[in-house]
Specification:
alpha/beta; Glutathione S-transferase Yfyf (Class Pi), Chain A, domain 2; Rossmann fold; 4-stranded parallel β-sheet; 10% strand
Length: 300
C-alpha cells in the first residue's frame, strides 16, 4: 500500500501528449520515489478555467468542477483531489468555496449533476500538488531521497499569480512566498534572492488578444532572472512555464534581446535530484534545453 493516496486531476494541459506532458512525466517520477499513489479520476472533464468566464454563466462553470468532485467522491472516496495545474486547482478550489458557502448554489449544481446521475456531497478537498508535498511530507522528508544535489545551479522561483492569490500555500506570504525557494534548496540548488518578479502575472490571458502587453510581462520576468544571476526559472504553473519559455524567441526577434532562459517545473528538479534520468524528468519536452540539469541527470 502506498504511503499516501490521492484522487488525481491531470487537467487538459498536463495529460499525456498535451502541452505540459513533461509536468505529468516528472510528477509521476517523483511520486514513485516518495511512494505517492495518484489515481486518475475516471471520466474527468475540463475544469472550465479557459472558457468558464466567457459569458457561459456561473452555474455551468461550477457544474463542470462539481462533476469532477462527484466522480472522485464516488470512485475514490476519502481521497483528496490533487491537481498539478495552477489554473485547474484555482478553478476547482474556487468552485468548492462557492458551493460550500451557498446552499442555493449547491442545490442548483446538484440539480444539474442529477441529469448525469451524479451528486456532489461536499466532502472532498481540493489541493495543489505543491500543497501535498509541503503539508503532507514537509521539506525534511522531501530532502531525504536526494542522491544528485543540484549544486552549482541558481534558480529564480517564479510562483506566478494563480498559486498565490486568493488561496496560496498555507503560512506563506502573498507578497513574497518562499516555498519554491525552499524546495530548490531542499534538492541542493541555490534560490536567487531578491527576485522581484516572483508573484507577477505572466500575461497568459493576454497572449493572443494583447500580445505586446503579455510579452512585456514575460520580458520583465526573464530579464529579472538574468539580473539576479539565475541559470533557470522554476514554476508550479503550466501556463507560466509555457508562456515564459515559448515567447522568449519572439521577444528576441522583436526587441533584439538574446534570452535563452530554461523554464522548469519544481517536479523536474526533484526528479533529477532523486536520481531520475532526463527522460524521467521530462527534460526532453523543453523548448529551451536545461543543459546544466541534463548534465546532472546524466551522471552515474
Amino acid at each position: 500500500m502506498a504511503k499516501k493516496e490521492y484522487a488525481f486531476y491531470p487537467g487538459c494541459s498536463s495529460q499525456l501528449k498535451a502541452s505540459a506532458a513533461n509536468y505529468l512525466t516528472s510528477t509521476r517520477s517523483l511520486c514513485r520515489v516518495l511512494d505517492i499513489k495518484l489515481t486518475e479520476i475516471p471520466d474527468w472533464n475540463c475544469c472550465g478555467a479557459s472558457i468558464g468566464y466567457a459569458e457561459g454563466g456561473e452555474l455551468p462553470r461550477l457544474a463542470l468542477n462539481a462533476r469532477n468532485f462527484a466522480l472522485a467522491e464516488s470512485h475514490l472516496p476519502g481521497q483528496d483531489i490533487v491537481a498539478t495545474c495552477a489554473a485547474c486547482w484555482l478553478s476547482a478550489r474556487e468552485t468548492k468555496e462557492r458551493l460550500d458557502a451557498s446552499a442555493e448554489l449547491m442545490r442548483e449544481t446538484n440539480e444539474a449533476l442529477a441529469a448525469a446521475g451524479l451528486h456532489y456531497k461536499g466532502e472532498v478537498a481540493v489541493r495543489h500538488m505543491v500543497e501535498v508535498l509541503i503539508e503532507d511530507f514537509g521539506y525534511e522528508a522531501l530532502a531525504q531521497p536526494v542522491v544528485k544535489p543540484l549544486a552549482g545551479i541558481k534558480f529564480a522561483g517564479y510562483v506566478g499569480c494563480q498559486t498565490n492569490r486568493p488561496f496560496g500555500i498555507a503560512g506563506e506570504s502573498f507578497e513574497n512566498p518562499m516555498y519554491l525557494d525552499k524546495m530548490v534548496e531542499t534538492v541542493g540548488g541555490e534560490a536567487v534572492t531578491g527576485y522581484d518578479q516572483k508573484v507577477t502575472c505572466c500575461g497568459g490571458a493576454l497572449a493572443f488578444s494583447e500580445a505586446e502587453k503579455s510579452q512585456k510581462q514575460i520580458r520583465d520576468i526573464v530579464e529579472s532572472a538574468y539580473d539576479h544571476g539565475a541559470d533557470m526559472i522554476v514554476t508550479p504553473c503550466p501556463l507560466c512555464q509555457a508562456n515564459v519559455e515559448i515567447y522568449q524567441s519572439e521577444i528576441n526577434k522583436k526587441q533584439g534581446t538574446k534570452f535563452h532562459m530554461p523554464v522548469l517545473y519544481y517536479s523536474q528538479l526533484m526528479t533529477v535530484a532523486y536520481g531520475g534520468s532526463a527522460r524521467e524528468a521530462g527534460l526532453d519536452g523543453q523548448l529551451i534545453r536545461a543543459e546544466k540539469l541534463e548534465e546532472i541527470a546524466a551522471k552515474g
